[in-house]
Queue: 2 jobs
Job 1
Amino acid sequence: MPELATRLTRVLQLRHPLLSAPMAFAAGGALAAAVSRAGGLGLIGGGYGDLPWLQQQFALAEGERIGVGFISWSLAKSPSLLAAALEHRPAAVMLSFGDPRPFAAAIHAAGAALVCQCQDMQHVRDAVEAGADVVVAQGAEAGGHGALRGTFSFVPEVADYLAAHAPETVLVAAGGVADGRGLAAALMLGADGVLVGTRLWASREALVKEGHHQAIVASDGDGTLRTRLPDIARELAWPPGFTARIRRNAFTERWHGREADLAQAVAVEGPRYRQAFEAGDPENTAVWFGEAAGLVHAIEPAAAIVERMVAQALDRLGLQRPAAA
Amino acid sequence: MPELATRLTRVLQLRHPLLSAPMAFAAGGALAAAVSRAGGLGLIGGGYGDLPWLQQQFALAEGERIGVGFISWSLAKSPSLLAAALEHRPAAVMLSFGDPRPFAAAIHAAGAALVCQCQDMQHVRDAVEAGADVVVAQGAEAGGHGALRGTFSFVPEVADYLAAHAPETVLVAAGGVADGRGLAAALMLGADGVLVGTRLWASREALVKEGHHQAIVASDGDGTLRTRLPDIARELAWPPGFTARIRRNAFTERWHGREADLAQAVAVEGPRYRQAFEAGDPENTAVWFGEAAGLVHAIEPAAAIVERMVAQALDRLGLQRPAAA
């Protein structure tokens, strides 16, 4: 397997410039370990603060060199979670959706790389102030939580900002990256690597119910939208400015544009939403994938996905030609 | 000046795989001619049906080989505009925002290439059915009218669709393409070239008032939003699903989320909007640029913009290395 070396592979000591997204509930230890074994860096999704689950997932990663990601505003409510995670000596800790600065010192003191996911230029300025080793520029096409900037012009704008203000900070592109074309394009835009969510959500190792996996295979990229509905149904206090990209289905059809009504009905609708989620019902709960659904045609092992992405990117970039000559 | 050859340059007989966006009001004959002289294909913006203006802009292009673009739902109301444009023997006619099929035969009969701009997969299927020679996949980061899909994952999804269903149809990426990094990335994603709006809106030849040009230079890419406000203020009957990306300013601050109020106040607010637009007021009217504003730092001649884009893309793609050896 040829390697694709960038600043990201050097900083994080990887064979390939690829991180898996720490998707809450879906990105457990098996997925993280599989991505790391394939040459990238797999991240467990720290989610909303379930310590026993997190410990279990670290155990499932069986000592593989991995990282972990947290939702910053949620971590701020249970900061002991970070200390527990750092005891597993993760190679990197990714922080998204909130101020990274309160956690930066502890992460660096534990010898982990600080990865800050950003959705707009203000987040990037905050990440640089926090001393981020890696900035992830996440575009709005991403599945799950995010904001408004599109990947295509956000990535080069962040590249310019980092070149001027923090030239040692490494840049990763996220949002819509699902194959080797996306990896190659991200490098052209000025990124040093990619973070892959949706495409690895659609892997065998992801903790995703069968009905939800079938839904992404059946969907094209038009079949999603950005909404606050799942956060209302789960009564999660997401800060303003963030929405979740999920599948368009009966749940979004029924409630999109009627957010206040859902909030009022949450005593009934909340349990119904959670029950449907647990059952893998693709219609009456949120199904967490992004616009890259249009590039996903099968549920495959994570290693096969990573290896194909790298091989296709190398081919696009023409980097195999010298070796072939 | 080195050339960058793709399927687009062959189909449209260009030196460089780059079209300028036919931006209503801003893309006149001078801009179109300058882009064509620089090796791309410049398109006059046919706008909302002002025939004398269109004739004047063709005259200003002084016989340069150019194209023209129309807003399909508006063209359907004054179809004689197309016949008048075809008398100028444009190299290409681009249709956006509506059904292209009623106009396809006349365009092909006049020897022009049919270029269909698409915002989702249904538009792509319609374009193929219309016999499009070129499909433009336009992402939501674009300035002006558009829809919801992000450039980064929409382009490869359209590339896959065309490869399977219309392999002769050429693909152009639009939305957030403002420098050579974007051109190179678009080629990696599977496009054969790019369509450039915002970056050429910020050119000397664009018909844009000084105050609006100053606003884009001052803005980063976070400074825009998608909204129906300008269409309400101008009483233009845009079909559902399309919004305009414009600068965040006093106008959007005042009315965003209060669309019905603006519609009710349009007898007063409409003339106020138009007056501010004519005066180049950057605050009290729509200012038409996209997220690529974060990549625009100066108003320059169109030729310089095009030449730098191509040179930077060639450099990124490593295509100059053989020549330099």
Note: Confidence is low (pLDDT under 50) at residues 321-325 of chain A.
Job 2
Amino acid sequence: MTETPTRVLVLNGPNLNLLGTREPGIYGAATLADIEASLRAVAASASPAVEIDFHQSNHEGVLIDLIQARGSGAAGIIINPGALTHYSIALRDALTAVGTPVIEVHLSNIHARESFRHHSVIAPIAIGQIAGFGPDSYRLALLHILRRLQSDGENAR
Amino acid sequence: MTETPTRVLVLNGPNLNLLGTREPGIYGAATLADIEASLRAVAASASPAVEIDFHQSNHEGVLIDLIQARGSGAAGIIINPGALTHYSIALRDALTAVGTPVIEVHLSNIHARESFRHHSVIAPIAIGQIAGFGPDSYRLALLHILRRLQSDGENAR
Amino acid sequence: MTETPTRVLVLNGPNLNLLGTREPGIYGAATLADIEASLRAVAASASPAVEIDFHQSNHEGVLIDLIQARGSGAAGIIINPGALTHYSIALRDALTAVGTPVIEVHLSNIHARESFRHHSVIAPIAIGQIAGFGPDSYRLALLHILRRLQSDGENAR
Amino acid sequence: MTETPTRVLVLNGPNLNLLGTREPGIYGAATLADIEASLRAVAASASPAVEIDFHQSNHEGVLIDLIQARGSGAAGIIINPGALTHYSIALRDALTAVGTPVIEVHLSNIHARESFRHHSVIAPIAIGQIAGFGPDSYRLALLHILRRLQSDGENAR
Amino acid sequence: MTETPTRVLVLNGPNLNLLGTREPGIYGAATLADIEASLRAVAASASPAVEIDFHQSNHEGVLIDLIQARGSGAAGIIINPGALTHYSIALRDALTAVGTPVIEVHLSNIHARESFRHHSVIAPIAIGQIAGFGPDSYRLALLHILRRLQSDGENAR
Amino acid sequence: MTETPTRVLVLNGPNLNLLGTREPGIYGAATLADIEASLRAVAASASPAVEIDFHQSNHEGVLIDLIQARGSGAAGIIINPGALTHYSIALRDALTAVGTPVIEVHLSNIHARESFRHHSVIAPIAIGQIAGFGPDSYRLALLHILRRLQSDGENAR
Amino acid sequence: MTETPTRVLVLNGPNLNLLGTREPGIYGAATLADIEASLRAVAASASPAVEIDFHQSNHEGVLIDLIQARGSGAAGIIINPGALTHYSIALRDALTAVGTPVIEVHLSNIHARESFRHHSVIAPIAIGQIAGFGPDSYRLALLHILRRLQSDGENAR
Amino acid sequence: MTETPTRVLVLNGPNLNLLGTREPGIYGAATLADIEASLRAVAASASPAVEIDFHQSNHEGVLIDLIQARGSGAAGIIINPGALTHYSIALRDALTAVGTPVIEVHLSNIHARESFRHHSVIAPIAIGQIAGFGPDSYRLALLHILRRLQSDGENAR
Amino acid sequence: MTETPTRVLVLNGPNLNLLGTREPGIYGAATLADIEASLRAVAASASPAVEIDFHQSNHEGVLIDLIQARGSGAAGIIINPGALTHYSIALRDALTAVGTPVIEVHLSNIHARESFRHHSVIAPIAIGQIAGFGPDSYRLALLHILRRLQSDGENAR
Amino acid sequence: MTETPTRVLVLNGPNLNLLGTREPGIYGAATLADIEASLRAVAASASPAVEIDFHQSNHEGVLIDLIQARGSGAAGIIINPGALTHYSIALRDALTAVGTPVIEVHLSNIHARESFRHHSVIAPIAIGQIAGFGPDSYRLALLHILRRLQSDGENAR
Amino acid sequence: MTETPTRVLVLNGPNLNLLGTREPGIYGAATLADIEASLRAVAASASPAVEIDFHQSNHEGVLIDLIQARGSGAAGIIINPGALTHYSIALRDALTAVGTPVIEVHLSNIHARESFRHHSVIAPIAIGQIAGFGPDSYRLALLHILRRLQSDGENAR
Amino acid sequence: MTETPTRVLVLNGPNLNLLGTREPGIYGAATLADIEASLRAVAASASPAVEIDFHQSNHEGVLIDLIQARGSGAAGIIINPGALTHYSIALRDALTAVGTPVIEVHLSNIHARESFRHHSVIAPIAIGQIAGFGPDSYRLALLHILRRLQSDGENAR
């Protein structure tokens, strides 16, 4: 906690690798690579610059392994858990265990979809939730982390 | 829909006028005036600049009147409905009626509070929801509206 | 109860002032003024003629004030509570207190919409409910009140 | 759909044949025959006159047979499903299948009775529901159908 | 159980007589007679041939009478209970009482429709359920019964 | 109410005609005819003798017709509604309408079976319920009616 | 199980000692002593005669002690658990443990009272339930036990 | 918190202005003015005397405004929220924000009325709830506040 | 009802004997004896003086015995049922049977504790409920009974 | 969509690899290899022949990977999700994303097992569900796909 | 808290006195005396030795009295509340009040029995729960208490 | 079943690898390696000695693979499923399939945590559950397995 970390872990859950290649009418044409590139651009232009540590997996276990391996050294975790949002208590426990601030993001407005998508088991242990803004949900999450870093930096001075 | 509107309506529900003056340990020291000033700063530096139309009321009826009177000409509505989030279907219907894109914001992470605060009657008719980032929830919402305006502008060219 | 009252109070809840000016594809082109005019026409041609006391408000408190101020002297209350139908127990209590016969009307068939719109907190204390017939819901309610007045008149003779 | 039908099917479910002969304190002295006669009077004085096709059965299956046999040629179906209102999905499916506009009527205000009577499986596929006005519920339903016919006639001109 | 029966009872519940004549966009153009003919063709070409005993009724009571009268001598019962699927415990009890193996079929995928159609009171006492394959649901059910007969025959040898 | 009626209506719902011929291991070897004979023997030896009016139907509508036609002149109605116990509100309404005292009987202990069999829509409008005593449930019900007749007779003297 | 027991244990739960002395308008004028006397009369005239072992307690623990001490030697247990019906799983377990056939009786029709009285935790482990017949509920229960003894006697011969 | 405040804020929600003028059979003949006078009498005779700050409104927003404007300087808030008790989370949040000790009072015993009146959204943030004692509910609340003041005074000495 | 009773029965349920000796941080330092003494002081200074009949038991059955033995002659019953509040329907039935006015009191605000403590099975049959005021809950209850006695006395004059 | 695919993807979820080797009394002696062989035989004899692409995994993530890698080129997906049926929304989303027609199959009749097995999160996005026919569930699913291919082929001609 | 207590209170709820004498097929042949002896043997061989304070009662009140009288001086409480597990909040409150560490034990696996046995009102205030190991559940609980004592002893050194 | 196996499989679910290294304030300082060592020590000193087969994985699929591969030859399975306890029906089915006795253990008392942690999908198919004793939960489970082995050994002699 003494020195500010400068890496942001971005995790994407099941099926997000298909983004942009399927159902562009619903999810838009942006691919996960586009989102990654866009986040890297924002991070690079931050002052000081921040590193983006970007992953996707269809496996709950792999995501937990990643959180354990790369979560604790990060300045923040931006996670789009995909469908795991609604039932993966194991993912929640992993995030709780590492203690790094978490922001839950969703491309779609999960509160406007089927009722089983309204409830998140992750949100109660996150700083907050950003849902419904497409790829911009990720950018907004990153902008908030940058602001936190900035304000931590100012406090440290 | 032919020309892009340049005003953003920001609405605040019951008890948000107390912000910063009470329970700073929980909600921070920022007042609603601070949030308004901060949004105006972001809006003024946007290109082209955007006008912030900022209101607070403890009355559901006044909020509905405001949505009807000032909602339809706006580029977007950022609303923190406060406790009305959880039961004011009348507020929801007013927002639906004017048709302007709505972003629901919350200072606190409502998904981490009492269970009756997890459910929003507003969210299903909004673009999305941003909850848990303190005053920054408003800024993120405005940044998304600005991006939408920019992208509409680009599409119009 | 000895002499028949000849005024009918018609109350309209939140957002009904927007009727006809928005979403005509759903709610039709009739405005609230059209409904008022249509009710006045029916009332004027009744024998004996009946006065229509017509109001709309987006404020729950104003509606309660109106019920208290103008409800008890009326021959009947026709109320379209809008979204307040589903949660305003205060409105229900006001209607119960004045004791005037109440008819609940809805433009749309609330039983065919979102499940939270199926339940009315007002209906259990009304004579009955008429839902789904557009502006004609109001006319049917008035016709029933006229019939009641007629039959009271006949009984009084 | 090219020419306006001029017959209205009126269906009455289980136990409505007992109307007026039992519990007049609750349901009034009017018999089902009185209701039929009253509807025929209204229909005869309409312009142009409308035929009333009136039936009652205690058998769910007979009601479904009637809907199939006589429903599709009618200008509208007025149905008081009695207790079947609350569970006969088969009746609902029959009404959906013939596609004729349906109005659900009830003598009593079902929303003010036992909670199991608040829910109708028929209402979601009807134009609307009229409940609580005694025999007048039927007359109001017929008046609405006549208005629809009139307005269809005007539109056709 | 000593000798294999060679008749299959096929029962169709309320409104299935309308099949093919209404809403072909949803249910397809096949009539119930087409389904019957198709089953007879499959049954005739089985070795040894099987008799199809095919019925439809809109009356729960008639279906129960049929199950009692013709169910026990059959090699299997294929039943599409229509809307009775969801509430006719009496139908369930009749099927339980005769003891003949039952297959529940549905033209549409009931699990993808309104939530009240997801639950079947019949399925728990059936061998299984086939739903969503249009008229082919019946054929698949018959093919399974033929396989059972075949395998019983083989075991008997 | 001035003179004591001397006929007892006994009604049996769906599938009770199968009694004794199927699943004797569960329901015993007694047939419905045995139960009828046993009731007639008890009724004949009562003083004064009572007539047993005994019926069974698999059709809800037929049972309602019977209640309407033969219920009001009876000293009591003993009804085993079978599976209709759990959903036939129409049967309940018919029994309520005729006003004759009703005793609900069941061969099996419905409170010890599947949970959907625990609830009776008939019981709330009956004098009481006797469940679990096999054919003896009917005899106990009749003995109670005889006692009521006796006590009414004594009161009348 | 080799020789038929000839004692019947009758247990009465909390507040039943007040019977007849309070609220005679609801529960009638019969006292618990009257019920005991009436049961003894029936038991004495049975052939062979049966002994009635009659108790009341306001203490759940005392009732359990009684079931343990006097339940296993009895031919049957008639229990009116009073309010314990609805929550005393301990009473249920005691009855289950002794294994003697149990009949649950109630003076009032619990299915027609407050909804929390509809459910019995005792009934699922009883032979059956008799509710609603006032003191006669006890007599009917005893008559059933006598018939069982008689039929056991016949089977033993 | 250094000096003891000597004003008690008394707030009355929707429809309480009708008290005494309507339905005296239920709510008694006491008006809200009578209650106010009675509280003033008790307050005046306290030692030291306490000021009563008494208000009623049918508007949720007005009540919230009053809590914000006059709540924080008071020694306690006695609130009868009327029907708002059951859904006004905004009222709850206002009371929480000012931090003054709150006592919730009701004229009627809300736990003995319709089930939707059993639950209070206010009570969890109040010191306690007093319900069912008519106008005396207010007096008891005031007596408790006086005792608290007295005991605070003693502690301060 | 002709002469005013002058004894007040005060009953305390399970674990209330531990009051003051354990967890003083939560429940305060007052013991049950302190509460009794305090009530006796208030009762002695009433005019005319009232007798306090004070009991505690950890046994549901003992409490019921006490209500039966000492409840009917009292001017009122003040009961803190402790944990029995939430499940002892037997206690409720005992209180209902004796018919003496009952006031339910609680030291803590049960509506602010675990959700299973929000519901009281006693409250619906009490005059009212006072919860959350520590030992003062008892005093307020007694003050209300004294006022009732006074007003009965005045009415009797 | 222009040319008919000729491969069918068959996926098996957790624990299905144990089939036939354990609990043959329940699931039969057929192994998963037997099912695969049987499907290949049916597919080979189809005209034109169809390729069977058969997989099993205990890992949700592996199944999602397979759906993404091999699902989109297939003529249909037959999936027995095993226990994942009841909670793997991620599996559902993967199937939705590839858009290939899906048939859900189960060896056992899930509607006749524990209640938590009645609900499928997959079924709402499938063509249909076949449950309860043992290994034959797979064959029936394949026969339906073959019929669809045939009918597509006929339509294409 | 200054010196380590060396007595362990073991409490057994309703019907556990029947252990071993009834239903040995289910609960085994061990009696409660056997369990007590077995615990004494383990306790005697502990170093230092521990005293076993062993009780059983069918009375909730007696168990509460025991907890109050003998609970606070003990090193731990091992309680098998029997059926009281599921509803005796009074027992829970007694255990909470004395503050001694509690271990809840069950002979059977309550999570594998009727659903109403899955929930314990005691467990949330216990250290933990051991269920399903027959008499060994008690031994395991004692072994844990011994370990705690040992570790407390080591810490104290 | 003829010869006693001497290996015990110990499985640990997601995030248990973090034990001791994080949040020692909550979970204590013991690591999973400490638990393994402690179990090995107990197992080694058993007579005859038992082998501990110890694994952890964050992957549901890996755990299922392990159960299938190593579960059937073991004398028992001790499993701490971590968060999978609450939703992994697949894990439950794997454990059911291998048939080896299972003991579910938890470090914390899951019945005292968030309500979604109270329910285990594994427990109903386990011998029993031990929750709340920290690392000692594992030791107690092993001690029970050793006792079972011992008693099996004695029975075999």
Note: The two ends of chain C are 14 Å apart (CA to CA).
